[in-house]
Structure formats: structure tokens, C-alpha cells
Amino acid sequence: MQTASLPDGWTLAATAGPVPADLPEVVPAQVPGCVHTDLLAVGAIVDPYLDEGERALRWVHDTDWRYTRDLALAPAAAHERVDLVVDGIDTVGTVALGGVELGRTANMHRAYRFDVRALADGSTHVLTVDLRSATAYASSLREALGERPSAYQPVPYNFVRKMACSFGWDWGPDLRTAGLWKDVRVERWSVARLAQVRPLVTVDAHGTGRVEVHVDVERSGLEPAEALAVDVEVHGAHARARIAADATGTVVTVEVPDAPLWWPVGYGKHPLVEATVTLRRGEPSEESVLDTWARRIGFRTVELDTSDDEHGTRFTILVNGQSVFVKGANWIPDDHFVTRITRERLDRRLDQALGAHMNLLRIWGGGLFESDDFYAACDERGILVWQDFLMACAAYPEESPLWEEVEAEARENVVRLMTHPSLVLWNGGNENLWGHEDWGWKERLGDLTWGQRYATELYAQVLAELDPTRPYSANSPYSPRRDAADMHPNDPDHGSHHQWEVWNRVDYTHYRSEVPRFCSEFGFQGPPTWRTLTDFVHAADGGALVDSPAPKDDRVFLVHQKADDGNGKLDRGMAPHLGVPTDFGDWHWAAQLNQARAVQHAVEHYRSWWPRTAGAIVWQLNDCWPVTSWAAIDSQERPKPLWFGLRHAYAPRVITVVERDGAASLALVNDTAEVWSGVLTLRRETFAGVRLATGTLDVSVAARTVLLLPLDATLAVPDDAGDEVLVAELDGARVVHTFAEDVDLRLDPAPLEVTAVAVPGGYRVDVTARSLATDITLLVDRAAADAQVDDALVDLPAGASASFVVRTAETIDPAVLTSAPVLRTANDLRAVPVLAPDQVAAAPEHHGGPDAGARPVDAVDGAVVVP
Q1: How far apart, in Å, are the Cα atoms of 795 and each of 5, 477, 541, 619, 786?
Q2: Which of 33, 279, 550, 626 has its CA 20 to 30 A from that of 12?
């Protein structure tokens, strides 16, 4: 097998559509790449992430494009096949070489192979890929098959097999890409090649690893078929099988005694071993090798427990027989222009996930089957992956040609990804079954197909055939006991659950009104970091956003706030807790703080109910462009305060105050393999540190358990809720619990003694609390663009101290780090002007739904919540 990639020599030209008069007729193109990135590279379009640039590029939606390059193929040997392989075409394409049409494509999520042997004659031919507007194609298919409802009508994303969020979402831009987004190459081969390799990896009760390798070959057809040999080697073990001349495949089994077990992070090591498959003709020799396949695999078992118990239906992931509490986040493409995502960027993002103590990422169904780099990086780190099949928040037609495309992409990607031990769960899509049940689809669909068979039949059948080693869930949310007539797909007591009432309609304290078996989506919005916001978003008059009379209502700001009534929900969400500051800088801090508090409140609640609640997957880890969103890390890779809140809430050991049976209790959460024991100290004191009640208790929390301790009334009931705090500490873990909302607390607005000094690589900021100080945070991006800080959202009772280390290559005046706008606390919001309660905009009376227009107002990741 000889392979030659074709990244260079391409040009790009528009061939039809509303093209601006000043657009160059032809521009250089890079493959992999897309139209937007190629036009950006030559300055032919504005940056769509900057200000209102997204709006200026709507013409691209309706434009057709052509990629072109010369290709000279040396003459093929007598028995040599020559294939043109295109790993990813976005999306509706016609591929031709030398004027000969090779094939047509209509699916971004699969690869294509074309036999070009007849054109391998030594001449130079023109290779063209014509790309039709995906919007036009999808619209025509919608006319043919009939309208289907979705969260973002009339956008027809459910009629084309393309990344759904390419059409915009309530956190993403509407920049409908087109291009050759994966590798294009020429492959030359003789006799036969490895067409498909499927290793089924299991471990038996005695620790013996078993790799059952299913091998399919494609023969050239240019000479009489002959017998072939397949050699498989895994971790030093070897096996061989023969493929008869009249056969196209075989199965080879390799057993590895005492196989090294792969564990998720926090549960053990995650060793990977080499697996190789070699296709040969005749006796083994270097010359006999026709094709090879090599991957790293891991030995582990995975199960999904959906059995019934006294609380409903479980949804618990087990790895190697060990139940795992999932501490996760939802993942979206890390850049809307996905070809800009490098392995290095993925490494940084996954390290940030680890830094927040996460053990799972859910790849959401409106995005992509991620790159091989993504899953390999998760394998190495022990990060579990929940993979959605690519359907989200819509009714999907089941007719041809969509059924065939959906099946083809599922088959290809199941095989591509099955080597990765990190991949532990396949899921049939996002909120499609829920949408059909609750969002008014039934009445509109009538007898039309809507995608149920994809979720309940096709995907399950594909997995049963190709990879039965992994569990499958039909959707998220999904109640496994849907055979019961009254079982709702989003029932919190049965299976996976999405909680969006909090963001859309009720206060975040309502997270604690339910105990879901597994919450696979929940979240709260907040703006990006100040530096990211002000670098990319300027006022409509071109000036600094902060100088605008009403920055968050500015037209340009709202381009980067995709949630309908998003700012209204932010204001209403913070009003009962922090108040709504009138100054934009204070509002920005309060909105970020409230986001972090809301999500931390939910996570600690869910963790306190383990094992009844078996996981929490926050919406969302990352952003794909500069935007106000639910993300913990903004598009410029800067952690928001939410990231620190998640790191605290997902810590291996956590103390939190909960309510059980109407009374306050402490929950000691131990998600480690060791017993957590020591002397628990408790005290109720004034903000100034005057002790009012104290207590100590010897405690021992077993591994992977939660210990609940009812609180004595002397500690749990304040004399003056506005000036008292409960502090509980055990072995370095601490909870600082106030008895009222901040708006009702008499917090000292300047409670800290602060010093900052230069240290190697940056600065150290030392703080001591004169009075209770809550959520101490250094917004270091306001001091230096590259600055990072090691902690945030730190609570200090009176007399306590903490140090923060700031890393930066820039020189900063240490004094800048000791006060606002860099050093902030929740306390300082008590001294800023806030809106009166009657000045906070009320929620719209009509919350929308699928009939509300192009963008339903109550949508998060596209989830329309109908009152």
C-alpha cells in the first residue's frame, strides 16, 4: 500500500449564488479546510467571530463552490489499483477527475473512495469537487419529503447529514460551512487491502483479555483471487488465520493472560497496548505484506445498569465491574471551523477537563463524530466518552436517501471508534424522543416519519452487529422503561434526565427539588471572560463595549448572545441572590459568579445522592466562538469562574450542606478508593469571627460512598441569619455556609488584607480575611492576556488566609492584582448599585415552543421547553 496525501495545490472559486462583487474569482485553498478559512486567509471576508461579522456572511449559505487542483497519476502497474480517498466532504458534492464524474456525496460524516485506475495514465488531469449549497439541498429535500419540526425552524438542518450546529444554535454562530474538511489522498495497492478491521475487546473473570478481530478485505479484481493470510499481534500474543481465495474475510482471536486493565481517571491506571493486523500473500516476509493496520487498545469491560429499584430505574455506568459516579461535561466542536482544531488544542482542553476533576465527556448529537486525535487523547488520560449518534432536537425523516446515509455513517463511525477504550456508551441522539413527546410535534407530524426508528431500531441493530461490547441508550434524555404507557422520556426517576426548567423558568435552588437517576444535561449561562468579550465584541458605534450606554443591550453584544431572552434570564437568575448591578463591569462579574454558584449548587446536590444519582454532565465544557453561553471555558481557552466552581464541586472529596427530611445535614462525599477519616470540626460564628457554637466529631467515610450527618440545631439554626456562617472542616476540605442569600447578608464589602509579590513565572497574591469573604476570585485576564491563576471562588471565614499563584509572561504592577477589577469577591457586590426588583424585566408571558418562530425562546442546546 502506497499513500500520498493531497493538501496543497488547491484553489477555490464560487460558482453560483449571491456572491459579493469584490470577492476574488479564485483563491488558494488548503485541504483539510473550508470556504470560510480559505477566504479569511486572503482577507476576502471579515472575521465572522468579530463584532457583527457573522451577519455579514449570510450570503455564503446560498453559494455553490468549486475546489480544483491538478493531479498527475503515474501509470498503474498491471495488477495495481489506484484509489482517490476523500475522508470528509462538507457536504453536498460532485467529485470529478479529468472531466469524468467519480461520484456524488451528501454526508459530512462519512468517507468516500473512488477507483481512478483508468485515469492513472501519466497525464495531468484536473481534479474538481463541486459543492452545492447545503441549505438549498436540504430545502429541496424538505419539499420532497414534507416539513418536519425542529428547535430552529425554518432552518432545515434535519434534512442533510451535516453538523447540525453549523446552522447555528443558542450558543453558536450560523456559519454554514462547505469544504474538504478531512484528508484527500491517493492510495495504490495490489491484490487486496484491509477494508475493515473490527477488534472486539473483552476481559473474562480470570483477567484474560480477549481480542476477537473481524477482518474484511477488498480484492483488486485485477487478477485471479488467491488465498491470503492475516497475522494479529496484541501485547506480545500472536495468532494467524487464512482467508480462502473465494472469501472476503476472517475472524482471528488473540488471548492475553493477565491483561493490564484500563480504568477511568480516579479509578486506576489506563494502560494502552499495541494491536497490529498484517495482511499477507504467501509465506511471511517483508515482500509478502499487502496492508497493515495498527492501533492502541485498552482492556476493560463496560456495562450500563438500567435495572429497577425502589426509586425507579437506574442509569449507572460500570467499568470493570466498578460503578462509576460520572463527573462530566457536554462537549461541542471546539471551534466552529473544525479544521482549525489541532491535537495540541485538544490536549489543552482535555487537560482542563481533568483539572476540573472530570471523568467523562459527552459528545453531543448536534456536533461531530470527533477526530481520532480526540479519542486517543481521552484514552491516554482515562477520560470516558459518551458518544451521541448525530441527531439533535428535531424530527428526522426516515425515507430515502436519508435512511441510507444515516446507516452508512453509523456503520463507518462505529467501526472507526471501537478501538478506543475511552468510548463507553453510544446514545441515539439528543432530545429527539423528548421533543416528539412534549414540543407539539405529534400534531404537526401526523403520519410522517420522525426518527423514532433510528433511535429504537437502526442504531441498536448496527451496534449489535458491529460492536456488541458497548451499551446503547436510545436517546438523552431517555427512560428505559418506555414500554410503560405513562413513562415520560424525561422522567427524572427513570434513566437519563435533562434539567432545563432552572435556566428557563425557575430559580437555581430548584435543582434540589428532584433527585434524578442521572442528569445528562443541566446548566446556567454566563458571559465569557472580560478579555475575550472585549477583544471580539465592540459597541455598535465601533467604540469599546464598556463605554456603551447599555452594553448588554447593545446590538453587537446581542449577536454574541444567542439565547432568546438570554440577558433577561441572567438578570432574573441573579436578582434574588446577588442583585442585578447597573454597572457593566459589576454585572459581568455577578453574571459569571451566579453561573458558577448555580451549577455548583446542582453538582453538589447530585453528588450527595450517590448511588441513587449516578452522574452529572454539565452543559457545557467548551465554546466554539466568543459568546455568552453555558460553557466553563470560553473560545479563547480561558476558564470562566464556572470552571473553578466545577473543580470544587467535582473534587474527589467534598463537604456540602444539604437538606434531608426537612432538616440540615452535612454530606461528606468520598469519591476515592481510600477511607476518608479524621476529626470533623464545626462552628457557627459571626462574619467577624465570634464563635457562637462549636462541635467536633470523629468520622470515617468509606471509599466511593457518601456519609450524611444531621446537624444539631445549635449549629444549623442562626440567631441572626444576616451575620452568621457555618464552617465545617475535615482533612483540608471545608464548607462555608451562609444562612441567607447575599442580598440579605451584611457582608463587609472590603473584607480582605491583600499583598502581591513577584515570584518566578508570575506573581503570588496573599489574602487574609478580616471578616467573612466569599468567592474570592482573581479575574487575571483583566491584568494580562496570557495570565492564569491556580484557584478561584475561595471562601474564607474571618482570620483565615489563602494564596493565589498567577502565571504570566507579562510584567504586571503587583498592585493591579490587589483590587477591582482584577480582585473580586461576592462581598464587593454589596457596595455596588443594583436594579430595584421592579426594574428587573419580567419573563415574557409567551414562552414559545416550536410555533414561536425561527428561534424558540425557551431553548438550550436547542431544547424547547413548552410551559
Answers
A1: 55, 35, 40, 25, 25
A2: 626
